[in-house]
Amino acid sequence: MYDKKLDEFLDGDLHPGQRKLDLTEGSIEKEFFISFKKLIEDNNSEVPEFNPFEKIENVRKKRISIAKRILPYAATVIILLGFFMVYQNNFSKKSKTAYSNQEILEIKKNTEMALLYFSKELNACMAKFEDAKQLQQPANEIRQLKDLKIEKDNTLENIKFN
Amino acid sequence: MKTKLILILILISKLGIAQVSYQTIDERFRFVMNHQALRTSYFEVNSEMFNTLAESKEVDPEFKAYIRKLSTLKVAQSDSGKLYMNFKTNCDLRKFERLMMKKDENGLMSFYKRERKGFPNEFLLISDKMVIYIAGEIDLKSIGEFEQVMEIAGSAFDM
C-alpha cells in the first residue's frame, strides 16, 4: 500500500482531491508527508548556494568598479581637452581674423588722422608756450639786470663781516 | 539737534555718492558713443589691431615703428561742440595731470597725462568737438614727433 502510494506520488499520479488520504496521527500518509517535508527542509538547508554566474558577476563588478574609478579621470581629461580646444579655436580665430586691404587702409587712415590731430594740436600748443616764454624773456632779462644792479649798488650787502 | 545731525549725515552720504558718480574715461567714451543727442562718431583701436596694422604691407615702416608702441587709441568726434564740458564735468580726471589748456575762437582744449608704473602712459586731448585718448609706451615728445613721422612717411594729409 505504502509503496504503491509512494510510486503514485512520485509519478505525479496522486490526486488528493480524487482519493481520500488518511491524515490521522500515525497513518502512513501522515508519516510520509512529515518525513517528506523534513527531507525537503533538510535538503534545502544543506545545499549550499551555488551561483554558476558568480565568477562572471565578480568580473563584471570589477569592471564596473574600474570604470567608476577611471570615469572621473577620463571626464577631467575630456573637459580639459575641450577647454584647450575652445581656447585654441578662439585663439586661432582671433589671430586669423582676416582684414581686407580696404579695412586695413581705413583703420590706418583713421589712426593716422587721430594721431596727427593730437600731434599737431600738441605742437601748436607747445609753440604758443614757447612764444609766450620768448615774449616774457625781455621782461625777465630786464628784471635780472635790475636785480643785478640792485645787488651791485647795495654796498651794504657786499660788505663781508669777519 | 538729532534731526540736524541726521540731515548732516544724509548730506554727507549724498556728497559721497556724488563723488562716486564720476565715470572713468572708458565709461565716458561708451556713454558719449551711445548718446544720440551728441551725434558722436567713435573710433577705437586696441593693441591687437595695432599689431595687425604693424604686420600689414600697406603700412609705411615709420608708421609701423610708431604704432608698435601704442596699446589703445580712442577717438570721439561730435559736431555738437559739447564734448569738452561733457568729459570735464563727468569724467574722473583727478588721476590725470593737466599739461596745457588752450582757449581760442575754436573753443577750449586741454591736454592730460597719466603715468603709472607697470602701466602704459595715457594721454588725453579734450576739445569741444573731439576727444582723443592714447595709451602706450610713448611720451609727450614722441606724440609731438608724430607729425614729423608722417612727413617722413610721406603720407601726411590735411585734417
* Proportion in β-strands of chain B: 25-35%
How are the strands of the largest sheet of chain B arranged?
Answer: 1-2-6-5-4-3
Order of SSEs of chain A: HHHHH
Shape of chain B: elongated
Low-confidence blocks of residues of chain B: 155-159
Name the structural class of chain B.
Answer: alpha+beta
Write down the overall mean pLDDT of chain B: 82
SS elements, strand count of chain A = 0
**DSSP helix fraction of chain A:** over 70%
The Cα radius of gyration of chain A reads 58 Å
CA gyration radius of chain B, whole angstroms: 19 Å
Greatest chain-chain interface? Answer: A-B, 27 and 35 residues
- The fraction of residues assigned to DSSP E strands of chain A is under 5%
Largest sheet: number of strands, sense, barrel closure of chain B: 6 strands, antiparallel
Structural class based on helices, strands and sheet pairing of chain A: mainly alpha
Which regions of chain A are unreliable across 5 or more consecutive residues at pLDDT < 50? Answer: none
* Count, helices of chain A: 5
Total helical elements of chain B: 7
Shape descriptor of chain A: rod-shaped
Mean of pLDDT of chain A: 76
Task: Summarize the topology.
The complex is a heterodimer of chains A (162) and B (159).
Chain A: H1 2-11, H2 28-46, H3 54-95, H4 101-153, H5 155-158
Chain B: H1 2-20, H2 25-34, E1 40-46, H3 47-55, H4 61-67, E2 70-78, H5 83-90, E3 97-104, E4 107-114, E5 121-127, E6 130-136, H6 140-144, H7 146-153
Helix pairs in contact in B: 3-4, 4-7
Description:
The complex is a heterodimer of chains A (162) and B (159). Chain A has 162 residues and is mainly α. In chain A, 79% of the residues lie in helices and 0% in strands. Chain A contains 5 helices and no strands. The longest helix of chain A is centred in the last third of the chain and has 53 residues, at 101-153. The termini of chain A are far apart. The mean pLDDT of chain A is 76. In chain B, helix 3 (47-55) runs antiparallel to helix 4 (61-67) and helix 4 (61-67) runs antiparallel to helix 7. Residues 155-159 of chain B have low confidence and may be disordered. A 6-stranded antiparallel sheet of chain B has the order 1-2-6-5-4-3. Chain B is of the alpha+beta class and 159 residues long. Chain B is elongated. Chain B has helices at residues 2-20, 25-34, 47-55, 61-67, 83-90, 140-144, 146-153; strands at residues 40-46, 70-78, 97-104, 107-114, 121-127, 130-136. The interface between A and B is medium-sized, with 27 and 35 residues.
